[in-house]
Amino acid sequence: MLTAEQIIAAHKANVETLFGLTNKAFEGVEKLVELNLQVARTALTEAADTTAAALSVKDAQELLSLQAALLQPTAEKAASYSRHIYDIASATGSEVAKVAEAQFADAQKKFTSVVDNAAKNAPAGTENAVALVKSAVAAANNAFESVQKAAKQAVEVAETNFQAATSQAVKATQTATRASKRAA
Fold first, then answer.
1. Nearest C-alpha neighbor of 175 from the set 167, 13, 136, 91
2. pLDDT tens digits for 1-26?
3. Domain residue spans in the chain?
4. Is the pTM of this model over 0.70?
5. Given a cut of 70, is residue 102 above it in pLDDT?
6. pLDDT value at position 180?
7. DSSP-assigned letters across all residues of the chain
């Protein structure tokens, strides 16, 4: 049976975990805001430079050349921005997952302790029921670990696919830029 001190300690630990997760979420939001401000500043500066360059163009050939020169960096910057957002979200998600795993491991350990304690104090003749409960707990733990491994593998595959898609998009843009420069 749980004592009042154990319940209070559990609530205190849960509140600390909640505040820790909230801080991690805020850190992720801060990084996103910082990234967006940086992108906005850069975009403003580049827009001013591009406008000045466009106003100094003397003929259509020079305008086409300017346009082709702007296409590739824009695509690369968009891909880089997407990678940064993905990295921030991934890092924040990893931190939350670590805390969740630690909490689950702790709860699992405590539940196993309660089951073991109950098994020690179980009346005679209930050995089969205790063994059944222990077996069910072990099966649930194994199932959770399998799901956890599958989720980690899915995240790894998604990361690989994201990186490949980003790389392909940048290469396609580079190819299109070179083709438009040759055509001009």
1. 167
2. 567 887 888 888 888 888 888 998 99
3. 4-183
4. no
5. yes
6. 61
7. ---HHHHHHHHHHHHHHHHHHHHHHHHHHHHHHHHHHHHHHHHHHHHHHHHHHHHT--SHHHHHHHHHHHHHHHHHHHHHHHHHHHHHHHHHHHHHHHHHHHHHHHHHHHHHHHHHHHHHTPPTT-HHHHHHHHHHHHHHHHHHHHHHHHHHHHHHHHHHHHHHHHHHHHHHHHHHHHHHHHH-
